[in-house]
Request: fold
Amino acid sequence: MTRHQYSANTAIAIVVANMIGTGVFTSLGFQLMDIQSSFVLLMLWL
Reply:
């Protein structure tokens, strides 16, 4: 088994990317509850 070592910048980038990804999917769920039109929701994200 090989052991990977990541730099601090790489580790921070991975954590930030995961936080942003989680936020996108969480906020999308809340928006789906409030907005009934899929077209309007798509326009908000574009």
